[in-house]
Structures are given as structure tokens and as C-alpha cells.
Amino acid sequence: MTRTITIAAGQLGPIAKDESRSAVVERLMDLLSQAAEANCELVAFPELALTTFFPRWFTEDIGGHDHYYETEMPSAETQPLFDLAKELGVGFALGYAELLTDDSGATRRFNTTVLVDQQGEIVGKFRKVHIPGHESDEPWRPFQHLERRYFEESDAGFAVHRAFGGIVGMATCNDRRWPETYREMGLQGVELSLIGYNTPIHYAPDPGQNALQGFHNHLCMQAGAYQNGTWVVGIAKGGTEEGVESLAQSCIIAPSGQIVAQAVTTGDELIVAKADLDWCKQYKETLFDFARYRRPEVYQRITTQKGVIEPPIDSPTEAPA
Ligand code: CDV
What we know:
By secondary structure, the protein is α/β, with parallel strands linked by helices. The chain has one domain (about 5-305): 4-Layer Sandwich (Nitrilase/N-carbamoyl-D-aminoacid amidohydrolase), CATH 3.60.110. The chain is built from eight helices and 14 strands. The chain has a six-stranded mixed β-sheet with strand order 5-4-3-2-1-14, covered by helices on one side. A six-stranded mixed β-sheet has the order 6-7-8-9-12-13, covered by helices on one side. It has a two-stranded antiparallel sheet with strand order 10-11. Helix 1 links the parallel strand 1 and strand 2 (about 40-45). Helix 1 (about 20-35) packs parallel to helix 2 and helix 4 (about 180-185) packs parallel to helix 5. 3-methyl-2-ureido-butyric acid binds near residues 133, 145, 197, 198 and 199.
């Protein structure tokens, strides 16, 4: 039995600050309809796909941004997308800002993605683990990246889900730059990794990286795909949003690390690929046969140490005898 599924990245162009949720949901539904016409089983949408990228603006009271968050999923405004998914038999992954009140009564804010199956049911939820940027007002920047003010880091890690006939995982934007993200999912047998992103071209702490944004985007996702034998779908919200230019270049990457489909615009665009999930085995059972070749006993620093600890300057390390 073949395990080939047709998957799509539903890239979005900019979302204006005053664009309504309903208008954005219309755009998502249009992409989902295109995915159905292309016989897709699944379409993945970007990070924070329902609103403008609001962490670019400082507010003293973060509650002043609460209207950018969802308190329920689906909500009255997003329900039509779920209904269409069920009607057309096309699942989706959707990134959004999540606001909740926990059991102790505390308000929690996460950068979240849900995985929805072909019956329109939520079958997985992921909360962003690596939160980039800064917490405080930094007015020297041409625009800010206050994700660390508006979201907390999730401790839930990288779960995977049996869905769409395979093993599906999710990660969000900055997570894609960290090899641990893919390896955590790889160790659970992931076959399809869905990663939405909002990546401004201008990187204020080191503008020398601006020209390399496209290269770094593909570099990390292609490496993650190959080293873990997984399909990776990278989905951008690209184009110039509220004056900030963001990377597009959404792509679908095979377990070989090769890009098999790539967006050519910076706006709303659907890209499609047929993904043979059994292709993953060619890597998982050969070069990257984890059970045979990994050496976790010599990787202790990876989970026990956070920052870099350099060797002392005056005591050179001895070569083993
Ligand atoms: N949304 C993001 O996580 N953006 C970061 C930028 C700030 C570097 C990224 O890794 O693309």
C-alpha cells in the first residue's frame, strides 16, 4: 500500500493591522479550496496566520494587544475554515496567538499551531518552544521583535501525531533554526514536519545577515529534513507588512534534503508536492539509523548544559592515550 499524500504550503502575503479576522479567514479558505482542486489531503499555513505580526510593536501593558489572540479554536470567525476543511476533506495546520487562563487563574500567552484532520477535527497542538527577540522596549530598532514580551516559552516540547497516514510534527519559525527541534521529532519517527514562519529580512542585531535570510531559511530546514529522514514544509507569511519586508520562499523539502516545490511570489500562493512517506525510510534505515549509530552517551552536554562553557585558557585538553 502506498503512503503517498499530496501536501501543500499555503503561503500568505502581508496581513494589514486593520484587516479583519474574517477577511483573513476568507484568504485561508481560498487557499484551502485551491488545495482541494489540486487533490491535496493537507495544507499548512504560516505562523500567526490570523493577524498582522503584532510583536513588532511595543505596548507597556501587554494586555493592550490581547485582541490579536484567540481565546478559543475554532471561534465564530475561524469556524468557516474548519467547516470547509470537513466539506472538502482537506486538513490544515494553522498558526495563531493563543490566550488562555490556566487552572491557577493565571493568564498565559503562547505562539500556537493546531493540526486539523480531514474531518475538521483538531488532532494536534504545538506551542512554540524557542522564542526569539527581546522583552523590553528597544526603540533604536527600525521595528521591534517583542516575541519574548508577548509569548512565553512552551515546556511541552515537540510532540508528534499519527495523522494523514503518517507521523506528523510541528514547529514554529525560530524553532526551525535549532537542530534539536528536528532531532526531538526524529527520535519519535517523524515523517512530515510542518513549520510556519514570519522572518523579517532586516535582522537588527546583525544586519550583515540580511542578505543571507533566504539561504539560512533553506539551509536549516534542508539539513533538518535530511538528518532525520523527514519531509519538511516551510510556510511563510512574506511580503511587506506594515512597512516590514519579510521572507517568502515557502518550500516543500524531501527526506533527501532536496527542495521539491518552492513559492515564487511574496503573496498568497499555494505550492504542492506529492510526498511519499516511505521515502523517509531510505534515510531512517541507512545513514541515519538512529538505533544503530547514535551515541547519546557522548551527547550529555546537549541536555545538561544551556550556554557555552569554553575550556580554561591555561589548561589545554589532553589527547586520549
Ligand atoms: N518569528 C520568528 O521566530 N522570527 C525569527 C526572527 C526574529 C529571527 C526567525 O527565526 O525567523
